[in-house]
Amino acid sequence: MATDICDIRNQIDHIDDTILDLINRRLNLAKRIGELKKDSGNRVVDSTRESEILRRLTSLNKGPLNPNVLHHIFIDIIAAARAVQASQRVAYLGPEATFTHLAATSHFGYSVTYVPQPSIREIFSEVEKGACDYGVVPVENSVEGSVRHTLDLFFESDLCICAERYQPVSYDLLAQEVRLRAIKTVYAHSQALNQCRNWLNQYLPDAELKECSSSAFAVGQSAREKQVAAIAGCGTAAIFRLEAVASKIEDFSRPPTRFLVIGKEKVRPSGRDKTSLMFALTHVPGALAGALAPITDAGINLVKIESRPTRHESWSHFFFVDLEGHFEDGSIQKAIELIKPHALYLKNLGSYPLIGVGV
Ligand SMILES: C=C(O[C@@H]1C=C(C(=O)O)C=C[C@H]1O)C(=O)O
């Protein structure tokens, strides 16, 4: 038996050596690409190429590797490949361990510098002034609120959407050690606490529950004391060097929150893309139907539509629509030309790879 384990471990060591060697060879190639990009003035991050790689590997994968794990592994390899080309700074809605932070790390991996911001407006402005290369903002069904704020800020800003990301809203119980019995106190943000009440009543009925202002504060308390646990977003244990004592402890599972990666670059087509438009219409009967008709007529899939008051005197509503396709597709360009006469204002917020929910 022991010899068997020994033998198999030797084989694993050999595979690890090969993986390490291959990763370093891949990084050296990325470095060469980085030099070519520098010469031609191209940006380091190529989201289209990245999504092509992830889609290709996901379809090649025959298991037992879980597709989500495959995604995480390659996001980190790709992040390391970006880092050897240039350092990247990513602004997100802080503090650490928010769902926006999680969305950011699952998109950019751990080889970039994350810069927490106190508000969505500040994320936009950090990227606009070039202090950060990208920003990550919540846009739909957020637990952090202010999603409408994100939509409104696109009116003022020239930044575009470079990518989207779906982040599950799920909680872990974190502590220094994994024995549930040892936990006497649980710190959590009020939202997290409210969403995990049943689980806490069932598994930690005697623990003292302490509400605090952020998950980052909660995990800070846990890092200080062995008997203190914290509730934080699923997957944050590694960020804080704590153990996940229990996972998915929320009482009801919720749909994932959608986040956007914003930046200055226009993303080229990947083969399966989404285009986000924002337009304002006059408040006359049939205006919206008229503006949407070119989309229907072209057989374009309207993925989402949402409206916001413009708060400008003579304009009534902004409409945000997500279409399946890329701005460079003839059908999308033609539809936009036909919408324009109906609109007081129209802006293309960007085309970016379409991502399945949960990836
Ligand atoms: C290596 C490149 O740079 C970055 C890293 C990539 C990778 O690791 O595969 C892919 C796209 C870029 O974001 C590249 O552009 O090919």
TrEMBL record:
Q: What is its EC number?
A: 4.2.1.51, 5.4.99.5
Keyword hit for Membrane: no
Give the catalysed reaction(s), semicolon-separated: prephenate + H(+) = 3-phenylpyruvate + CO2 + H2O; chorismate = prephenate
GO molecular function list: chorismate mutase activity; prephenate dehydratase activity
Q: Name one GO cellular component term.
A: cytoplasm
User: Which pathway features in its UniProt record?
Assistant: Metabolic intermediate biosynthesis; prephenate biosynthesis; prephenate from chorismate: step 1/1; Amino-acid biosynthesis; L-phenylalanine biosynthesis; phenylpyruvate from prephenate: step 1/1
Prephenate dehydratase domain ranges (all copies)? 89-264
Q: Which Pfam families match?
A: ACT (PF01842), CM_2 (PF01817), PDT (PF00800)
Positions of the Chorismate mutase domain: 1-89
Output this protein's name: Bifunctional chorismate mutase/prephenate dehydratase
Q: Which organism is it from?
A: Desulfosarcina alkanivorans
Lineage of this protein's species?
Bacteria, Pseudomonadati, Thermodesulfobacteriota, Desulfobacteria, Desulfobacterales
